[in-house]
Design brief:
The complex is a heterodimer. Chain A is mainly beta. Helix content of chain A is 0%, strand content 57%. The termini of chain A are far apart. By secondary structure, chain B is mainly beta. Chain B contains no helices and 11 strands. Chain B is globular, with a radius of gyration of 13 Å. The chains are: A mainly beta, B mainly beta. Chains A and B meet through β4, β5 and β10 of A and β4, β5, β9 and β10 of B.
């Protein structure tokens, strides 16, 4: 099956810093999503981004499908950004989704 | 709208017992999914459904069964629980393509 690798696995930031999270995938995909799992376990969808660039406030994402990677940018990080960020891909278009192992982010005051 | 809800929130089972996890969504979504999340890992797809009356296997279907008798509900069954099924179970739903919306999760401990 498709392989999804995320980097870095762990990241500690000072509040206010910027960061870039990366997701590499081993095959072409029909869709790609970024999720945030907060410290209480709730999963929140951030972006549905099979290609191109999207922005939502301090967060933005870019997917370059031809090169099989996606980037999640977090600017001016806040402590509430802490948690685990997951990339999830669907190679076949049937929503049979494969998740990466995540990037654990800790933002310290 | 309640979104996606899961019942129960937490359960302890003994090996060999059976149970059913209920997922309900009020967004009229066609697709529904069951995932499990183990420590330090991402989510793995157990089963999914592309519409009422349909189900399909995901990445880790063994030991689980599902049913989608009503569009708004997706049930996950464990016929004979094993300690390896200790995990956090998440349900999600979506339109045919696009954003998946997740429930709050069910913590299951099998002794």
């Amino acid at each position: 099956g498709i392989q999804v690798e995320q980097s870095p696995p762990d990241l500690i930031l000072q509040e206010g810093a910027n960061s870039t999270l990366r997701c590499n995938f081993s095959d072409s995909v029909n869709n790609l999503q970024w999720f945030h799992q907060n410290p209480w376990g709730q999963l929140i969808n951030l972006f549905y981004i099979p290609s191109g660039t999207k922005q939502n406030g301090r967060l933005s994402a870019t997917t370059v499908a031809t090169e099989r990677y996606s980037l999640l940018y977090i600017s001016s990080s806040q402590t509430t950004d802490s948690g685990v960020y997951f990339c999830a891909v669907d190679p076949g278009g049937y929503q049979k989704v494969t998740f990466g192992t995540g990037t654990k982010l800790q933002v310290i005051p | 709208n309640a979104g996606v809800t899961q019942t129960p929130k937490f359960r302890v089972l003994k090996t060999g017992q059976s149970m059913t996890l209920l997922c309900a969504q009020d967004m009229n979504h066609e697709y529904m999914y069951w995932y499990r999340q183990d420590p330090g890992m991402g989510l793995r797809l157990i089963h999914y459904s592309v519409g009422e009356g349909t189900t399909a296997k995901g990445e880790v279907p063994d030991g689980y069964n599902v049913s989608r008798l009503k569009k708004q509900n997706f049930l996950l069954g464990l016929e004979s629980a094993a300690p390896s099924q200790t995990s956090v179970y998440f349900c999600a739903s979506s339109y045919t393509k696009g954003t998946q919306y997740f429930g709050p999760g069910t913590r299951l401990l099998v002794l």
